[in-house]
Amino acid sequence: MHLLDNQIRNYAWGSTTAIAEALGKAPSGRPEAELWIGAHPDAPSATATGPLDQVIAEDPEHYLGAASRTAFGARLPFLTKLLAADAPLSLQVHPTLEQARAGFAAENSAGVPREAPHRNYKDDNHKPEMILALTDFEALCGFRPVPESAQLFQALAAAAQGQDGDGARLLRFCADTLTEATDESAALHSIVESLISGGDAVADAVEQAVESSSAIESLDSLQPQGNPSATAATLRDLAQEYPADPGALISLLLNRVSLDPGECLALPAGNMHAYLSGLGVEVMASSDNVLRGGLTPKHIDIPELLRTVDFRSLPVPRVTAELSELGQEIYRPGFAEFQLQRISSGPGAQPVPLAQRGPLLVLVLQGAARLDTPRGDLQLNRGQSAFVAAAEAPAMLHPVEQSPEGYLAFAVTTDLVTTDLEA
């Protein structure tokens, strides 16, 4: 097994304190947005013998196991992050595996540099992901039922009645398109395309919507599935953070989700979403492919975005934990690349065998625990993490005397059905 030294990404939307507090370290004074734990080539975790991606490449059969290597190739199939949002992330969507492969190959053939700001595909992998809230966590996630969106835009259009500006006309267009929709996906596609492409009319519409946002808060019929007050507040907050940005109006089409600590969302390909605030453990397929749709100064490729978005109204994709006999919570979102375990143990508790289907990452966020495999053991203190090779299975976590409060740990492995983990 390998003790890991992980990199922090200092994106502007990150919290200056949340990740440092979670790891038990002093804040750096800079926005700390994401702690990357894994072998992604853009920010691989360091080990005593080199970057984790290079360590794995030296003997992928040993580190990944036959099943993982067959399914995902000679790379660690998942990436784990601590994500701390102090401001909204960009409105975004992730491609399917087929879209990622085709897009990556096309941009390579066209000679687009990998770090070019207008490049869409940084790699050839998809990026299904899951977020488990560690604090209260706010997000936009997938399209809400069209009748709800219709009510929201009807309220804004009614408040703008009698005005002839471009913004008022755009709000009426959205309201009419949603109200009269016979093909809901086509209606959502039309509105998103109009908002992203709308130019000055969108800026006017955002301003008008913010001025009329109190009209949304009176929509009692949206309770309890929707939350008009939260929706109106989100509209105002986004418009203040990103003036004239179409993402503020697109937020009215999306589910506004509040997660309590321990609650979890899974985000498949095509799900338009944005994290708004909070700290969470995020797990995903090992990719950095993001197509943006708003709330960002970065490049937006409108045609590629529209080809990627799933415009169906679907239920909020919550993930409920399975509880093992020893009390660990296992979150399985249905993506073969990963599952997440949450293990909370008091002092003197029994050792907990970790679910391990090939490679394994372990992170301790409270107390200390001893990670034990047939080939050795390693004490992990608060904020430390480790990588366990497939060949070292089975792995167990033990409480330690130096941690009278017990420990809280998270473990990530694949969710392959096969149990063939031989090196």
Protein model, in words:
The chain has 423 residues and is an alpha+beta fold. Helix content is 29%, strand content 27%. The protein has 13 helices and 22 strands. It has helices at residues 18-23, 52-58, 60-64, 66-72, 97-109, 146-159, 166-179, 184-196, 200-211, 214-217, 228-241, 246-250, 302-308, and strands at residues 2-4, 7-9, 34-37, 46-47, 50-51, 78-85, 91-93, 129-133, 137-143, 254-259, 264-267, 273-285, 291-294, 322-323, 329-331, 339-345, 352-353, 360-373, 376-381, 385-388, 396-399, 407-413. The strands form 4 sheets. Strands 1, 14, 15, 16, 17, 18, 19, 20, 21 and 22 form a 10-stranded antiparallel sheet that branches. Strands 2, 3, 6, 8, 9, 10, 11 and 12 form an 8-stranded antiparallel sheet that branches. It starts with a strand and ends in a 10-residue tail after the last strand.
Measured by DSSP, the beta-strand proportion falls in: 25-35%
Low-confidence stretches: 419-423
Mean pLDDT over the residues: 93
Structural class: alpha+beta
Radius of gyration equals 23 Å
Q: Specify the helix fraction band.
A: 25-40%
Shape: globular
For the largest beta-sheet, the strand count, sense and barrel status come to: 10 strands, antiparallel
- The total beta strand count reads 22
End-to-end gap: 14 Å
Number of helices: 13
